[in-house]
Amino acid sequence: MPDTISLQPIGRIHSPFTFTTGMPIQTVAAADVTGHVEVFEAFAPGLRDIEHFDYLILLTHLHQASEKLEVVPFMDTQSHGVFATRSPARPNRLGLSIVRLLRVEGCALHFSGNDMLDGTPVLDIKPYVPALDVRQTERIGWFQQGLQRLPETVSDDRMK
Ligand SMILES: C[S@@+](CC[C@H](N)C(=O)[O-])C[C@H]1O[C@@H](n2cnc3c(N)ncnc32)[C@H](O)[C@@H]1O
Protein backbone atom coordinates (compact mmCIF):
# COMPACT_ATOMS: atom_id res chain seq x y z
CA MET A 1 0.00 0.00 0.00
CA PRO A 2 1.37 3.48 -0.79
CA ASP A 3 2.24 5.74 2.15
CA THR A 4 0.38 8.63 0.55
CA ILE A 5 -2.40 8.93 -2.00
CA SER A 6 -2.69 12.05 -4.10
CA LEU A 7 -6.21 13.12 -5.06
CA GLN A 8 -7.33 15.55 -7.73
CA PRO A 9 -10.33 17.79 -6.95
CA ILE A 10 -13.15 17.37 -9.49
CA GLY A 11 -14.76 20.65 -8.49
CA ARG A 12 -15.28 23.22 -5.78
CA ILE A 13 -18.08 24.37 -3.50
CA HIS A 14 -19.64 27.80 -3.84
CA SER A 15 -21.18 28.65 -0.49
CA PRO A 16 -22.27 31.70 1.51
CA PHE A 17 -19.92 30.65 4.33
CA THR A 18 -16.41 32.09 4.40
CA PHE A 19 -15.71 31.50 8.13
CA THR A 20 -16.41 28.35 10.14
CA THR A 21 -17.69 30.34 13.12
CA GLY A 22 -21.49 30.40 13.16
CA MET A 23 -22.11 28.16 10.15
CA PRO A 24 -24.24 24.96 10.11
CA ILE A 25 -22.62 21.74 11.33
CA GLN A 26 -24.66 19.28 9.24
CA THR A 27 -26.64 19.58 6.01
CA VAL A 28 -29.78 18.13 7.62
CA ALA A 29 -29.84 21.18 9.91
CA ALA A 30 -29.31 23.60 7.02
CA ALA A 31 -32.00 22.48 4.59
CA ASP A 32 -32.69 26.05 3.44
CA VAL A 33 -29.09 27.04 2.81
CA THR A 34 -28.20 26.79 -0.85
CA GLY A 35 -24.92 26.52 -2.71
CA HIS A 36 -23.54 24.97 -5.83
CA VAL A 37 -20.82 22.60 -6.91
CA GLU A 38 -18.75 23.91 -9.79
CA VAL A 39 -17.62 20.73 -11.54
CA PHE A 40 -14.46 21.33 -13.52
CA GLU A 41 -14.89 21.08 -17.29
CA ALA A 42 -12.61 18.03 -17.62
CA PHE A 43 -15.08 16.02 -15.50
CA ALA A 44 -18.26 17.19 -17.27
CA PRO A 45 -18.94 13.81 -19.01
CA GLY A 46 -19.27 12.28 -15.53
CA LEU A 47 -22.37 14.38 -14.88
CA ARG A 48 -24.52 12.60 -17.46
CA ASP A 49 -27.83 11.41 -15.85
CA ILE A 50 -27.15 13.13 -12.52
CA GLU A 51 -30.29 15.27 -12.91
CA HIS A 52 -32.41 12.17 -12.17
CA PHE A 53 -31.44 12.14 -8.49
CA ASP A 54 -32.97 14.13 -5.63
CA TYR A 55 -29.97 13.83 -3.32
CA LEU A 56 -26.24 13.62 -3.87
CA ILE A 57 -23.38 12.57 -1.60
CA LEU A 58 -20.52 15.03 -1.81
CA LEU A 59 -17.12 13.81 -0.68
CA THR A 60 -15.01 16.81 0.11
CA HIS A 61 -11.64 17.86 1.41
CA LEU A 62 -12.24 20.10 4.44
CA HIS A 63 -9.13 22.00 3.57
CA GLN A 64 -9.11 24.53 6.41
CA ALA A 65 -9.50 21.97 9.21
CA SER A 66 -6.62 20.60 11.24
CA GLU A 67 -5.95 16.89 11.73
CA LYS A 68 -6.87 15.49 15.17
CA LEU A 69 -7.35 12.04 16.63
CA GLU A 70 -9.44 13.08 19.63
CA VAL A 71 -11.98 15.88 19.56
CA VAL A 72 -14.79 17.45 21.53
CA PRO A 73 -17.51 17.44 18.86
CA PHE A 74 -19.77 20.45 18.30
CA MET A 75 -22.74 18.55 19.79
CA ASP A 76 -20.97 17.36 22.94
CA THR A 77 -18.82 18.57 25.83
CA GLN A 78 -16.87 15.31 26.15
CA SER A 79 -13.89 14.18 24.09
CA HIS A 80 -14.22 11.22 21.70
CA GLY A 81 -11.95 9.39 19.31
CA VAL A 82 -12.29 11.20 16.02
CA PHE A 83 -13.53 8.11 14.17
CA ALA A 84 -16.55 8.06 16.50
CA THR A 85 -17.43 11.59 15.35
CA ARG A 86 -18.24 13.60 12.23
CA SER A 87 -15.60 16.19 13.12
CA PRO A 88 -14.03 18.05 10.18
CA ALA A 89 -10.65 17.87 11.98
CA ARG A 90 -9.51 14.32 11.24
CA PRO A 91 -6.81 12.47 9.33
CA ASN A 92 -7.20 13.33 5.63
CA ARG A 93 -9.90 15.92 6.50
CA LEU A 94 -12.56 14.16 4.45
CA GLY A 95 -16.14 15.46 4.56
CA LEU A 96 -19.35 13.70 3.57
CA SER A 97 -22.32 15.96 2.87
CA ILE A 98 -25.70 14.71 1.64
CA VAL A 99 -27.31 17.57 -0.29
CA ARG A 100 -30.59 18.03 -2.15
CA LEU A 101 -30.04 18.58 -5.87
CA LEU A 102 -32.18 21.53 -6.99
CA ARG A 103 -31.09 21.87 -10.61
CA VAL A 104 -28.23 21.28 -13.01
CA GLU A 105 -26.97 24.16 -15.15
CA GLY A 106 -24.12 22.93 -17.30
CA CYS A 107 -21.34 22.05 -14.87
CA ALA A 108 -23.06 23.75 -11.92
CA LEU A 109 -24.97 21.52 -9.51
CA HIS A 110 -27.24 23.74 -7.42
CA PHE A 111 -28.17 22.24 -4.08
CA SER A 112 -29.74 22.96 -0.72
CA GLY A 113 -28.43 21.71 2.61
CA ASN A 114 -25.04 23.29 3.04
CA ASP A 115 -22.41 22.76 5.75
CA MET A 116 -19.35 23.57 3.63
CA LEU A 117 -17.11 26.59 3.37
CA ASP A 118 -16.83 28.51 0.15
CA GLY A 119 -13.99 27.05 -1.91
CA THR A 120 -14.11 23.57 -0.35
CA PRO A 121 -12.53 21.14 -2.84
CA VAL A 122 -14.87 18.37 -4.03
CA LEU A 123 -13.23 14.97 -4.48
CA ASP A 124 -16.19 12.90 -5.65
CA ILE A 125 -19.97 12.95 -6.14
CA LYS A 126 -22.24 9.93 -5.73
CA PRO A 127 -26.00 9.56 -6.01
CA TYR A 128 -27.82 9.07 -2.72
CA VAL A 129 -29.92 5.89 -2.98
CA PRO A 130 -31.97 5.08 0.13
CA ALA A 131 -32.01 1.33 -0.56
CA LEU A 132 -28.21 1.39 -0.50
CA ASP A 133 -27.50 4.08 2.03
CA VAL A 134 -30.13 3.92 4.78
CA ARG A 135 -29.93 1.48 7.70
CA GLN A 136 -32.29 1.25 10.64
CA THR A 137 -30.27 1.27 13.85
CA GLU A 138 -30.62 2.08 17.53
CA ARG A 139 -26.90 2.11 18.45
CA ILE A 140 -25.65 5.60 17.68
CA GLY A 141 -23.22 6.08 20.55
CA TRP A 142 -22.86 9.56 22.05
CA PHE A 143 -25.12 10.99 19.28
CA GLN A 144 -28.06 9.54 21.27
CA GLN A 145 -27.75 12.58 23.57
CA GLY A 146 -25.80 14.87 21.26
CA LEU A 147 -28.42 15.00 18.51
CA GLN A 148 -30.75 16.89 20.83
CA ARG A 149 -28.35 19.82 20.41
CA LEU A 150 -28.35 19.70 16.60
CA PRO A 151 -31.13 22.24 15.90
CA GLU A 152 -29.45 25.04 17.84
CA THR A 153 -25.77 24.15 17.38
CA VAL A 154 -23.61 26.10 14.96
CA SER A 155 -19.94 25.74 14.24
CA ASP A 156 -17.12 27.49 16.04
CA ASP A 157 -13.41 27.51 15.25
CA ARG A 158 -12.35 24.61 17.52
CA MET A 159 -11.40 22.40 14.54
CA LYS A 160 -8.76 24.77 13.14
C1 LIG B 1 -19.13 18.84 11.35
S1 LIG B 1 -18.52 18.94 9.70
C2 LIG B 1 -19.60 17.82 8.93
C3 LIG B 1 -19.29 17.71 7.47
C4 LIG B 1 -20.00 16.55 6.82
N1 LIG B 1 -21.46 16.71 6.82
C5 LIG B 1 -19.60 15.25 7.47
O1 LIG B 1 -20.35 14.72 8.30
O2 LIG B 1 -18.50 14.78 7.14
C6 LIG B 1 -19.15 20.49 9.16
C7 LIG B 1 -18.28 21.58 9.70
O3 LIG B 1 -17.03 21.50 9.05
C8 LIG B 1 -16.43 22.76 8.99
N2 LIG B 1 -16.05 22.98 7.59
C9 LIG B 1 -16.83 23.03 6.51
N3 LIG B 1 -16.11 23.21 5.40
C10 LIG B 1 -14.82 23.25 5.79
C11 LIG B 1 -13.58 23.41 5.12
N4 LIG B 1 -13.51 23.52 3.79
N5 LIG B 1 -12.45 23.43 5.87
C12 LIG B 1 -12.50 23.30 7.21
N6 LIG B 1 -13.63 23.14 7.90
C13 LIG B 1 -14.78 23.11 7.20
C14 LIG B 1 -17.42 23.76 9.54
O4 LIG B 1 -17.08 24.00 10.89
C15 LIG B 1 -18.73 23.01 9.45
O5 LIG B 1 -19.64 23.43 10.41
UniProtKB/TrEMBL annotation:
Assigned keywords, A-Z: Methyltransferase, S-adenosyl-L-methionine, Transferase
Domain TsaA-like per the UniProt entry, residue ranges: 7-137
GO biological process, one term: methylation
Gene Ontology MF term list: methyltransferase activity
NCBIfam families documented for this protein: tRNA_TsaA
Family named by the database record: Belongs to the tRNA methyltransferase O family.
The protein's name: tRNA (N6-threonylcarbamoyladenosine(37)-N6)-methyltransferase TrmO
Source organism: Comamonas piscis
Name of encoding gene: tsaA
